[in-house]
Hints:
Order of helices and strands: HHHHHHH
Distance between the termini: 28 Å
Amino acid sequence: MFNLKYVFFCILPLVSAFTWLGMLLAMFIVWHLEGSPHYVSMEPNQRIAYISDVGAQGLQPLFIAGACVTTIFLDLSLAAERWLRHTGRLAKNMGKPEKSLSALSILFALFGTAGLILLSIFDTVSHPRLHDGFLLLFIAGYVISAIFICAEYQRLGRHFRQHRILRASFWMKLVFIIIEVLLAAVFIGTSFTSHKNIAAVLEWTIALIFTFYVLTFFVDLLPASRNHQKVTNTEMSHTDGATAV
């Protein structure tokens, strides 16, 4: 059974993920239905538009709205997870290190939020340098945030080894970090070596993978919605020296 009071928190990452996915699909479909036009912001030999190319045209209001809703609800998911751990609805942070890692993950997520919202406003046509800088801030902010979350879950796993969901979420986020960092490196390399079509495909791919990262927070928050007793310190594993996750 589920506690409706806490089901609300599980909805936050779903709103974020499906808003982001819906925005990406709408932008790609519109670009395709318009005949895959060659925008002014595209290179002469570029056939595939970047997300930013499409967002700089008539769909910029959609781009800005989608970026705002996606990041705000994702940040609310992070804040909700922190609060639910504090109140004991989720596995509690056992000390200052875990709490500090959680706070740092939220801080860098806010940097990522600022990056995405600002890059949607400062489009690649009118403000190309600012746009690229905010794109870097967006990617770096959320990747570093995910690193801090993984570190927090690794420490939590030492105390709550019976909570398999911590292990599952840890590995999902770690896979996200590895894939996104690798793809981002190739994306940057192809962007600056005139392989614009490959770079465009990579940008769409990186953006789609971000959807699955957001959905991992639904997995994190779901246990809080179940009717169970609060997680107390007595549930902590007594073998802290064991490997965590």
